[in-house]
Amino acid sequence: MGARLTEANAEHGDACSHKNQQHTSCSDCRLHSICLPIALEASDIARLDQIIERSSSLERGQMACEEDQPFTSLYALRTGSLKAYRLTADGKEQITGFYLPGELFGVDGIAQNRHLTSVMALETSSICEIPFTRLEELSALIPDLQRHVFKIMSQEIAQDQQLITLLSKNSAEQRVAALLLNLSRRSARLKLSSTALRLPMSRTDIGNYLGLTVETVSRIFSRFQKAGMLEVEKREIHICNSDILAELAG
Amino acid sequence: MGARLTEANAEHGDACSHKNQQHTSCSDCRLHSICLPIALEASDIARLDQIIERSSSLERGQMACEEDQPFTSLYALRTGSLKAYRLTADGKEQITGFYLPGELFGVDGIAQNRHLTSVMALETSSICEIPFTRLEELSALIPDLQRHVFKIMSQEIAQDQQLITLLSKNSAEQRVAALLLNLSRRSARLKLSSTALRLPMSRTDIGNYLGLTVETVSRIFSRFQKAGMLEVEKREIHICNSDILAELAG
DNA sequence: CGTGCGCTTGATAATGGTCAAGACGCGTGG
DNA sequence: CCACGCGTCTTGACCATTATCAAGCGCACG
Lengths: 250, 250
Hints:
The structure is a homodimer. Chain A is α+β, with helices and mostly antiparallel strands. The first copy, chain A, folds into 2 domains: 26-156, Jelly Rolls; 170-249, Arc Repressor Mutant, subunit A (Orthogonal Bundle). The first copy, chain A, is built from 8 helices and 11 strands. Chain A has a 4-stranded antiparallel beta sheet with strand order 1-8-3-6. Chain A has a 4-stranded antiparallel beta sheet with strand order 2-7-4-5. In chain A, strand 10 and strand 11 form a beta hairpin. The first copy, chain A, is globular, with a radius of gyration of 19 Å. Chain A binds a DNA duplex through helix 7.
């Protein structure tokens, strides 16, 4: 679970220069306010636009970046959804977060110059790539930008620590309730419904993330539905009673 | 679980100037190599010495810093031990890490300008305080230092994510084994025994950190002892067979 | 010399995992 | 167009792990 930065450029930024003309600028982007909550002047946004080298499209299962690979860029998710994960010593996958449009990822690589996590597309997705060295140069000119990158890094820490608490102190039901509420809030931020969600991830992924088995996740969805808190139809979720859900999550 | 930076100055850095004379310099410090693994010239160390304003002593239960308080400094632990924790929404404590001498803490506050965690002394401890604004100034002169602070931040992320994996995928026995091995390694780094440990934290703290109850932690210690892997005498632990322990931890 | 806290141990209960089976949906290839 | 197979999801029966409750011990501290 990362945060926000920007969006830009052509669907597939390749060598063809006039193809690159048909780009969306950050200032036009629907996700502008999520991605860049800091107050940037129009001229600053234009400068940011210029450093965003390319934006690419990923099919379900394709990687945005991989654990241990050299860190070169930050990324912003424009459309679709992603999961971030690490491999454990014995080769199992541990999902550490999901990303929705407008959220920024890749900050974990800043310090070591290598990515700590792999990030995979859960569905067809498009991302904007922000070369870090050029972002650093720009940060020197726009102090708010530097500060913003720092903020995103510590949000990563804060979110990880919240997940630690969730895993350490909460029951299976509480974990699922907390995840649903979290997704609901992030959906609302995208000006989408906070009550009607389309889960981009499988039950297995949810279980992996929350430290539960698929079966348990499935049973809890059923239980919540019987209790009238949710309507579940495959990956379409309708939250009928977010108050009870919130109370449960604590 | 933080990392390293520095150590310095007098036992109680107060206003009395000639009391401040009797300081230990970073270059004299026994923890030098742990705290400052980067290769700094002698002159650089001297400059670092100068910005370390004071070093204070904490009694068991006293706070080094508190959640939501303004962030002003990074800290290095010189002697003793600490626990870092956050309070959950319903007032429970979630321990997110323990610190041993030579380790640096407080980085979580960099981005938001507020500390994300509280840090409490588990026993009488002494810490060095490094005012962040002055560290930033110095970083401009010593690029390695800047890089080092970044590195420590991402180590925080990496450690949190390892804890997430531990909590999400491992049994109670595996969690305890992993913690013991971790402490053993950190003890060895201090040129102390890697097999004879004095646990600075209570069983309750261990349970809190690992998402287990006190009873479970206690039973596992007993079980490990019966299996010949450990000798447990109150908080003194002797690791008899670290290979089996490591195999168990996975 | 008590009182309280930290630790251990036992008995019991509950939560969640494992194993197994089947339904449903989707894409592939005959 | 249908059949097949695979992956995802659900549900049930059973079991294991860990939590809860309760009691007792020993040490530190007032």
